[in-house]
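Q: Protein A?
A:
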Amino acid sequence: MLGRNAENLCHITVSGLLNAVLTHLHPSYLSAPPTGSAGRPFLFYSQVHRTFWSKTDTFAVWAQPLPTMEFAELIKTTKVDHVVLSRPGLPSVKGTLCITSHHLLLSSQPGGNEEQGQIELWLLIRNVDAIEKSVQNLSWYQSARTNGSPPETRLANASGTITLKCKDLKILQLEIPGMEECLNIASSIEALSSVESVMMTYPFFYRPQNMKLEDGWGLHRLEEFYQQIAADVMLRSSQPLVGPNRKRCQKDELLLHAVLAGGDRGFVLETRSAQAAKQARMLGGGTEHRSAYPGWKRFHRPLERGRPLQESFIKLVEACNDPSHSMDRWLSKLEASKWLYHVKEALSTACLVAQCMDREEACVLVHGAEGTDTTLLVTALAQVILDPNCRTLTGFQGLLEREWIQAGHPFCLRCAHSAYSHVRLKHEAPTFLLFLDCVWQLGRQFPLSLEFNEGFLLALFEHSYASPYGTFLCNNEKERKLCEVKEKTHSLWPWLNSKGEEFLNLLYAHNPLVIWPSVEPQSLLLWQGLFLRWVRSSHHLDDAWGEIQKIMKSTQED
């Protein structure tokens, strides 16, 4: 597993919500030097027993104390009256805007008869991806001369508009009276949304009622899957560290040979192109020697990751937010984004893995470079296709735990920014969002086979980018251990499970069979519930689902 540069982490306490009365910070630490891995971690998936076994690396850690600071230093203005909130498809609301250490709140102005204002906006500041500022009603005045000095020119009656573009793709506009207040609010939001320290984020302070810190963290224990490997297995790993000198690892060869004991055959699915794998060899990586791994056949199914995938996401969101396009222009921009192409490639690759296991009865090893992006995408999708347990609400949560969270997908790096950010992107990539989109495609093609609904997938998307829970914090288990995430934050799973029917598919019927999706262009659709939900109203669809729920309930009662 690749190391990363040292990070400064601070632990703070907060008293008061609206006025953000802050105490001093308690210094903590976390740092990890850039290190290399001598081997590669494996995970095995058994189609027969659905069992897993994993092996992880170890790496060095050092500690570095941090200076204290206060959130109050980042908040220049805590409260502004007469702010107008505008949202697409909803009427404007006028009220009082407050900034706390982690939230932006707007309470509508109360009416007569001592009515209290209503909270119209409760936005986690970590959800803000980009801020844009503009000035209205700009006028000037000059002060009188004093002792022969030249007159001073000042702004008068100026107001400003702040546009907040969020990581969950919604866009909010705040019209703020007073230029100084507008700039202070924008500066405060920018500073609070870009705090890098993990332990200064909201999950370390969020304490919901009727929930204990330990709830949920033991729901999906990986140890339950440490069982003896059965006949046909799926493995995932990082790339072998062959290097330009074509080094070999005897333990690695023996391990893969043991998997094929009994004359079985296996396939190595490489998620990089042959050219990319060859170039990686010059940097210390590479692919398996054919002669050293008898019985294993390698083939390449390159999948985009990193910046190309992020740019595809950005282009798609830009197209969805522009209502001026004609139908031809819209379809052209949709195709140019290549997002549905990425969905198609991910699903077809996962189907290929599932076919090797289900129909060829062969073992499959999936890997790319680090084994924490496209590798996880393919193995997780293949299990949803193969395993009916992974299509249940609880089973899908367990799949996310072992194939994404505990497998080391770097959520902190990949989800640092969404589709609106103006900063130079480095490590961002919507790999997890691509996985959720593929699962949505499966649910649309097999509406009775998934126990959870679209709302559940939308909630996972939102919480992967900004969440009051600690489930998607950090980049790997090592960082979560050092930050004491499981001891100091709440798990997302109990909250999701407490929602009852809100996240359940009422049409669900257990399907023990493998589900084979179609990847033809006419079979893959844009996920409108995510990409267009803030652009146009979905009340007609909501009404339709409401009627379906009534019918299902009445049928069950009968």
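Q: Protein B?
A:
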Amino acid sequence: MISKALKYIYRLLKQVCHGETDDAGPKEERLLFTFGGRSEGWPGLGRTLYTNEPYFKAAIESCNRIIKKNGGVDILSYFEAPIEANYYRGEENFICITAIQIATVQLYNENGIFPNAVLGLSLGEPSAVFAAGALTVEETIKVILSGMEIHKKADKNYIFLFFKLGMAEGVQLCKKCPVWSEVVYEESSDSLIIVCNQDDIIQFKSFTDAQQIKFKPVTTITNFPYHTSLISLYYHAWENFANIIEPKPLKCDYYSSAIGKCIPKNTLLDNIHWFNIIVKPVLHDTVLRLVLKEGYESVLQIGPPAVSDRQWNQLDPNHRLKIFDTFQLGCVSEISHLNFNLGELKAKIFKPTFLNEKPKAVLTDILKSFDIHAIDLHDQLTYLKKNGEIHFLPLHNSWMVLGYDKTDYILKNPDLFSSSAYNQIDKVLMGADPESHKMVRELLQPLFSSQTIAEVSRKTLNVAETLLDPLFALDQFDLVKDFSDPLSQIIICDFMGFTPSEGLEVRNVLGRDYHNGNFFQRLEQYFNNDFELADHQGDDNFVGKIKKAQENGQLTRADATSLLRLILSAGIATTSTVVGTVLNNLNKTPELTAQIQGNDQLLAKYVEECLRLETPAHYVRRITTQPVEISAQHLPAGAHIYINLRSANRDADHFVNPTVFSIDRPAKRNLVFGSGIHQCIGMGISRAEVRSATQVALTRLEQLNGYTWEAPEYFKDSEVQAMITLKLKRSGN
């Protein structure tokens, strides 16, 4: 508060001297840190600061120890030995740039200067995220070293070419080119860099000449094809480094040139982001336009200018950015330049940022907008669990419980944690509490016998073959809508005892897009008005059992309708999603398919690992029946709780390396289908159906591998993260 008051007084004095007034009081500005990559301006920078600034020197020495520990080169010679003009010719020495960026950020932070946002360009992206508080020093260094690991293995016979073309024109040129080429750098709206193999340059030039398009080499030195899809070939060389990074929330906005957009604060970056910054082109112009549109007042360039004055002016000649360069090219005294910058920056009043707040403030802000229905929350859940096993979610006015032990405890204590939260869906079984639940469970349990499960497995094999084989005559199809959905619908209708005509009617009622929110109501209307229980005899199937229970007075017609609707929808949505998930995983793990083919034991482990890592149900809900305490948090009676199954099944206290897919994992009970008296009654049938569908797919791998698989899409705002599309397109079409 005192420093801000002094800033205000300083500003008032300046205004008085210049005859200005500011009736609105001190204006808070926003400060952007920028981080560039490889550039000609780096040689020599930081050396005099290392000599004269103890804090900077200590930070560099700390980085050096971490670099050497992780297999990198000793960088102290850059600062202590005579300057080498060609120091940055060696790829292994570029880690020195990262060390200087890290030390510079720490130096400015030590003097109270923190960013409201960061911008990363190419090699500077990891340092930008470090400045945003989402990477540690060691993690930042490991990300850079992982790229250098790729450099060791990659072909370095690629040449970089400068074109006066817009991004769309450049992409189209590469698509039409008879030899491989890709855009790697978008410099401005009408200039970019394209890379191609040196061996193809004659053919490439013939093609561009025919198009009357000119280019010039950026340099005569060839290199590896960074920022292109070819780097994907070296994923395994990279992942050993980056997979040990622990995702943490961004404490300020982050402009990423790899994806060309702003990633908002509180986002947790998954590890694949660090691979994407190597394989995707640098969208320099796109991301700078976003920055200017956002209206930042000040920019601190960490290192030589990541963006030149010419580039800022070219984008907007009228911009009002106050630009500070941490290092001024040709400046004799880096310490004097540092002190000048600090004086200017400290005279400004910048908007608050989480970077100089306590971690609790970040956690509170994340929870404020946390949406339990969001897709792919794994990293967020891991972060939240490290900060406690129970959190209040204002968006849902409910508590969320994380971790295996607490989840298992709540599910096994229905007297304390009622299932009545599900009464609107089904109060007969799913929402029933112990006594009434016990009666219905005992009534239905015989239908889910081992003999029934074996029969479901056999029928699934036949139906899966019938559905899958005709699809291979098509150039494209949807593995969900054309396979897993109809498969699960046919099997569950058969299990329930519907006649073929009734099964067809039910499938028509559901429709192909049955996740649209009102299918539950459609089913209720159908079972109430159009379906006749009286037509079903015997009690050896679900419908017959329900009919007999109604005749005996054990169930009302409303109860019967609720159970029919519940078992049908659960048997379709959950099972279809799991089938899609397992098949999609087969496509992503080709190295495992040979192991599990023909091995039922390994196949079962494979399915369980898919279930554990991609648990179809995000959570289950409960309501406290009396005041309770969970992890030292007091909850009153009537408190609503979301018990997060995905967090439980990735709990590091119960599963070694929980994010790693492994069919060698020791057998340990997961909580995919819940626990306690409400454990899913149909889990045996679901597992059998998924295994059989996978067996059939394994025998058709050659056909499936002839297609390009798109990323699946999921339905949001549901307890089940239901896969709704998984499109395949024949390769080459």
